Amino acid sequence: MNLKTLFTAVQAQILWADPAHETADVPHVVAADLMSDVLTMDLERPLLLTSLATEQALRTAHVVGAVAVLVANGKTPPPEMVTLARKLGLPLARTALSKFDAAVTLGKTLGS
C-alpha cells in the first residue's frame, strides 16, 4: 500500500513530505508510544503511528527505517519536529483520529 493512500484513509494533514514519498510502499504499521518498544520490532519499512509529538519519535523512526511518522489524537507537532522531519527526509503527518481509530483504519486499508 502506498503512503498517500494510508494518509488519505485517516484524513491526515501532511506536515512535511517530499512528493516522491507519496508512492512509498508501506507494508506494515506500528502503533506505539514507547519508543523502546519500536526499537525492538523486526519489521521493514513500517509507518510509525504514535501520539508522541516529540523529536524522539522521529529519531526512533529514522533508526528503524520507518517510511513515515503519523501523530494521532489531534496533536500538533512543534515546529522543531517538522524541521527535524525535513532534515531526516522522513514524512511527518498528523490525524485528528485517536491512535486506536487510526490503527483500525490503517489495518483495514492494508487489508489486515
Description:
It is a single chain. With 112 residues, this protein is α/β, with parallel strands linked by helices. It is 39% helix and 18% strand. Helix 3 runs parallel beside helix 4 (79-88). The longest helix has 12 residues, at 99-110. The radius of gyration is 12 Å and the shape is globular. The termini are close together.
Order of the strands making up the biggest sheet? 1-5-4-3-2
Radius of gyration: 12 Å
Count of individual helical segments: 5
Distance between the termini: 12 Å
Helix content: 25-40%
User: Total number of β-strand segments?
Assistant: 5
Measured by DSSP, the beta-strand proportion falls in 15-25%
Average predicted local confidence, pLDDT: 96
Residue stretches low in confidence (pLDDT < 50, at least 5 long) are: none
Q: Sum up the overall morphology in one term.
A: globular
**Oligomerization state of this entry?**
single chain
Question: How would you concisely characterize the structure shown here?
Answer:
The protein is α/β, with parallel strands linked by helices and 112 residues long. The chain has helices at 3-9, 35-39, 55-64, 79-88, 99-110, and strands at residues 13-16, 28-31, 46-50, 68-71, 92-94.
How would you summarize the topology of this molecule?
Elements: H1 3-9, E1 13-16, E2 28-31, H2 35-39, E3 46-50, H3 55-64, E4 68-71, H4 79-88, E5 92-94, H5 99-110
Parallel strand pairs: 2-3, 3-4, 4-5
Antiparallel strand pairs: 1-5
